[in-house]
Design a protein that fits this description.
Strand content: 15-25%
Shape: elongated
Order of helices and strands: HHEEHEEEHEEEEEHHHEE
Largest sheet: 7 strands, mixed
Structural class: alpha/beta
Radius of gyration: 30 Å
Helix content: 25-40%
Number of domains: 2
Number of strands: 12
CATH class of the largest domain: Alpha Beta
CATH topology of the largest domain: Collagenase (Catalytic Domain)
Length: about 250
């Protein structure tokens, strides 16, 4: 047709045999090495999608434990006890795939709570009514403990805990170390002293030191982690992660 140009369709250029074999125009390399590299890339993408397998154990769904700091003040609201450091707690519970979340604190204006009796239950019952919850664990900081014969910050090792299947109240001296908070909160969600539960040298965070200023091990056994994760206060089903158990 007049005024129109005709175009000849070009055939696609075929790669030379050397290019097809090696994947480059220089002809260097070999087919098996290229295929191995491609397989490695595919395997990496597959692992990134499914998650890298954990060493010697299955991954766990991340759970959450909420903790409310509870400070005790005098009846007039003055002289509040100090706030516990939960840095070790967060690190230790993470080994069992439990994310510890610190929520807003509560201040109780009751002077009598500052000295907690190890033997008498009435004060602890009143305190339990004030702070226990099925939503979160309570971490109460007091000044001293009383075992009936002596009073001091090192009595009962500086800590004491009440719990049941759905709630937990941990008590500790307000100037105790951060390891003590992890130990007592371990009790709050069902953990017992390691000599009562484990046979692996009692080497877990639940082995008491007997002194609020002395830190023990931060190990978490599989058995202990299972107890914590089954307690009513550890909730949710987050992303899968690798636990860091000591056994």
């Amino acid at each position: 047709m007049a005024g129109l140009k005709s175009y000849r369709r070009r055939r696609p250029r075929r790669a030379s045999p050397s290019v097809m074999r090696s994947g480059n125009r220089s002809g260097s390399g070999n087919g098996p090495e290229l295929e191995a590299a491609q397989d490695a890339v595919k395997a990496g993408l597959k692992n990134a999608t499914k998650g890298v397998a954990c060493k010697n154990r299955s991954r766990l769904r991340m759970k959450t434990l909420k903790v409310k700091p509870v400070r005790i003040a005098d009846d007039d609201g003055s002289n509040k006890t100090g706030k516990a450091d939960m840095s070790v707690t967060k690190r230790v519970f993470k080994k069992a795939a439990i994310d510890v979340q610190e929520i807003s604190e509560t201040v109780l204006k009751k002077t009598s709570y500052k000295e907690m009796s190890h033997l008498g239950k009435e004060a602890k019952k009143d305190l339990w009514k004030d702070v226990a919850s099925t939503d979160h664990a309570a971490l109460v900081t007091v000044e001293t403990f009383n075992d009936g014969s002596k009073v001091g910050r090192k009595v009962t090792g500086g800590g004491y805990t009440w719990n049941n299947a759905r709630a937990g109240m941990a008590m500790m001296v307000h100037d105790g170390g951060s390891w003590l908070a992890a130990h007592e909160l371990g009790h709050a969600v069902g953990g017992k002293h390691s000599h009562q539960t484990d046979k692996s040298g009692n080497n877990t965070v639940m082995k008491p030191t007997g002194d609020p200023d002395v830190a023990g091990t931060e190990n978490v056994s599989k058995k202990l982690g299972r107890v914590w994760r089954r307690h009513g206060l550890t909730k949710g089903r987050g992303a899968k992660v690798c636990p860091d158990y000591s056994d």
